[in-house]
């Protein structure tokens, strides 16, 4: 007979999955109607030759994601509710290994299982969906290498974090949630240094931007933004995909801005400068630290919940677990995941505010909205992004405002470029009204 806590877990995970599925369907349908209504704007402003291709791309990505999510959740619940998870934990407990080692082995098994499950979907997305729409540049050998290296990285760093937390459980049984929380926050800080210098170079080459017209443009925008010219790199994203992007990462001497080579190829120099100014704003406005602080608060709540779960006898009885804290932690995380998903509309507000602030900084740095709006239109069009997400879907999933919203907001606040011409004249057709 299935226990009440197990039924609650099924209801929680299943309910969130149904919600996600409905939101995905609404988003695709809403976006299709809005794109067709704004067909001329999508063609002219985003330079999309065939808006139906954009819609087909969104449908394909959404469908694949939902199928993968349903299969993953069904298999996960089957393993937990059937008692298989408890049996595996019991078998590990019977090995005589230290409890910390048992927990790390269990996590490693979960990572490998997750990778094995996701691999066919990742391959289909890369070699069927992305290939169909002209984005894929990967070979099968490169894809396999990424899978193996990514799995290795996840095992190493996942094992380090899990081992550290479980050592805290063993050494500080009364206050381990505080110690575990501190370890996770410290690890998050450390990863901001390790990722750009150690992990990212395992997958891509990063060339400093220097000795070129682009370097002159970089120095110019640094000067305008009040920065010394620090680390700006061009990444060989085109080895894998024609998608374009840019990002800011790190702090202190490890901080750097990374521009995809595809972005450099697709945009004019002023638009690249606007993107660079936007990324610099995340450091200048302390967005990195604010996001870290918000994440730390969120993790504190999670660790408090895990403390309650691991000290409650019901979890061990309901799921047939051995009296090992790591086994209960796994179940606790299954409950916590959907709750974090449901809280996303609240937590996303901080990121949305930061993106708007960064857009403002870019417009002020560039002397008007024209360059930034061109950059946003290029990003949306080249990536076949859905410019009109459903409001409910956006609340749960988007950490950036929609492209039309960002353009409209910039033009309302910075409606003239440096020459005095209306932004709409230089920056493209008027943005469709909000729906």
TrEMBL record:
Pfam families: Peptidase_M48 (PF01435), Peptidase_M48_N (PF16491). One of its GO terms (molecular function) is metallopeptidase activity. Residues 408-419 have a biased composition (Basic and acidic residues). Zn(2+) binds at residues 278, 282, 355. Keywords: Hydrolase, Membrane, Metal-binding, Metalloprotease, Protease, Transmembrane, Transmembrane helix, Zinc. Its cofactor is Zn(2+). The chain crosses the membrane at residues 6-26, 67-85, 97-117, 147-172, 178-195, 292-310, 325-346. Residues 408-435 are annotated as: Disordered. GO terms for biological process: proteolysis. The active site is at residues 279, 359. Residues 43-204 form the CAAX prenyl protease 1 N-terminal domain. Residues 212-412 form the Peptidase M48 domain. Binds 1 zinc ion per subunit. Belongs to the peptidase M48 family. This is M48 family metallopeptidase.
């Amino acid at each position: 007979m299935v226990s009440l806590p197990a039924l609650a877990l099924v209801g929680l995970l299943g309910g969130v999955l149904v919600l996600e599925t409905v939101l995905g369907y609404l988003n695709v349908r809403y976006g299709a109607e809005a794109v067709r209504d704004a067909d001329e704007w999508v063609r002219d402003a985003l330079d999309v030759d065939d808006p139906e291709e954009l819609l087909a791309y969104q449908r394909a990505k959404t469908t694949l994601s939902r199928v993968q999510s349903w299969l993953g959740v069904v298999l996960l619940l089957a393993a937990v509710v059937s008692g298989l998870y408890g049996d595996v934990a019991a078998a590990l407990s019977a090995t005589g290994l230290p409890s910390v080692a048992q927990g790390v082995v269990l996590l490693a098994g979960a990572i490998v299982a997750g990778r094995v499950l996701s691999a066919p979907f990742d391959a289909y997305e890369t070699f069927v969906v992305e290939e169909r729409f002209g984005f894929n540049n990967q070979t099968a050998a490169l894809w396999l290498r990424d899978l193996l290296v990514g799995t290795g990285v996840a095992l190493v760093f996942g094992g380090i974090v899990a081992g550290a937390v479980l050592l805290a459980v063993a050494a500080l049984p009364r206050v381990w949630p505080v110690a575990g929380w501190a370890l996770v926050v410290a690890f998050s800080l450390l990863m901001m240094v390790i990722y750009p210098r150690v992990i990212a170079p395992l997958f891509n080459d990063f060339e400093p931007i220097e000795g070129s017209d682009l370097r002159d443009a970089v120095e110019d925008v640094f000067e305008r933004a009040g920065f010394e010219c620090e680390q700006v790199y061009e990444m060989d994203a085109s080895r894998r995909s024609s998608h374009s992007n840019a990002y800011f990462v790190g702090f202190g001497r490890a901080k750097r801005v990374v521009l995809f080579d595809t972005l450099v190829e697709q945009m004019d120099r002023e638009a690249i400068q606007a993107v660079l100014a936007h990324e610099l704003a995340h450091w200048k406005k302390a967005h990195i630290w604010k996001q870290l602080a918000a994440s730390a608060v969120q993790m504190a709540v999670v660790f408090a919940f895990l403390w309650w779960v691991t000290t409650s006898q019901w979890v061990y009885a309901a799921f047939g677990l051995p009296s090992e804290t790591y086994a209960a932690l796994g179940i606790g995380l299954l409950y916590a995941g959907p709750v974090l998903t449901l809280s996303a509309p609240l937590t996303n507000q901080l990121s949305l505010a930061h993106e708007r602030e960064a857009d403002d900084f870019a417009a002020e740095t560039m002397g008007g909205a024209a360059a930034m709006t061109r950059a946003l239109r290029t990003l949306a069009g080249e990536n076949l992004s859905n410019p009109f997400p459903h409001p409910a879907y956006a609340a749960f999933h988007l950490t950036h405002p929609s492209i039309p919203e960002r353009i409209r907001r910039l033009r309302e606040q910075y409606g003239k470029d440096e020459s005095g011409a209306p932004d709409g004249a230089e920056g493209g057709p008027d943005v469709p009204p909000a729906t």
